[in-house]
Amino acid sequence: MTRPASENELPQLYEQMLLIRAYEEKIVEASAAGKVPGTCTSVGQEAAAVGVVNALGGDDLILTNHRSAAHLIARGADPGRLLAEVMGRSAGYCQGKSGSLHISVKELGVVLTSTIVGAELSLATGVALAQGMLGKPGIVVCFFGDGAACEGAFHESLNLASVWNLPILYVCENNQWQAFVHRRETMRRDHVADWAVPYDIPARTVDGNNVEAVLAAARAAAAEVRASGRPFLLETYTYRSRGHFEPDDQAYVDPAERAAWAARDPIAACRDRLLASGRLTASQDAALADKVQSRIAVALAFAEASPYPALSEMTTDVYA
Ligand SMILES: Cc1ncc(C[n+]2csc(CCOP(=O)(O)OP(=O)(O)O)c2C)c(N)n1
Fold this sequence. Notes:
Strand order of the largest sheet: 2-1-3-4-8-7
Low-confidence stretches: none
Number of strands: 8
Largest sheet: 6 strands, parallel
Helix content: 40-55%
Number of helices: 11
Strand content: 5-15%
Structural class: alpha/beta
Mean pLDDT: 96
Bound molecules: thiamine diphosphate
CATH architecture: 3-Layer(aba) Sandwich
Distance between the termini: 43 Å
């Protein structure tokens, strides 16, 4: 059974997207002020993250990549503990030892963030194998980029997951860019979903800037994985609106391309739909904006007040 986004779900998805955007914009601002180290944001990709994560169940496990903040926040992570982690403070989810690029949150089922591009694919495939061997109920969801899909790890993982019937939802966030290289330079086709065909894996591409469309597609895909016990590849077609990392002036990007995608911003589009259908008023929207801004201000204050880990803990919880 799959359900489309219901009437009262959309405002909640919208608020999550606003919170993610506010969180990442705060990191950009704080990093420009020298308070926070620069990191990779997923500004412009909020609908892709929120739509998929909201389609999951509590037992499902997530493995993600270097643009993981949106996945974590949509899964319910506390922005204060996330910011503390990015700032290397002991109140962070990994006691400040992972930063943004390796964060995991066991209690939310977020197994890991991989900054080794493509590593999340082979590790997620292994986690799905373990889930089956241990008789665990949840499916595994793996977020990766179009750049990762150009690596051998993608093809090996899909092949093995198909041959071994592993319950895994691969989610390719095709955001058009692979660091400073456009995907046109590394792929003959526009869609990573096409690459699932030879592995006998069902696949679909969805408009990654439409949160309701992503939610519905992810619900259908997750239901198929649960019913079949087999992999599925969902491609969310979206855009990385900011640079590869912070700071990055994006001088290598055609301004017309940026403008075209800015006109399809997922949050603005969702807001327009909510306002047009009467599910949100302009004053409610302003109140929501204030709410998320004050949540992020509290989060930053919390993170800044947290101490760095003690020197004596330097090697605890660190495996490599
Ligand atoms: C194995 C490996 N090669 C190269 C890098 C450097 N690197 C970090 S992110 C990135 C681009 C990845 O592109 P994509 O998978 O499309 O993800 P996106 O950054 O677009 O979200 C590269 C090349 C790395 N971290 N790991």
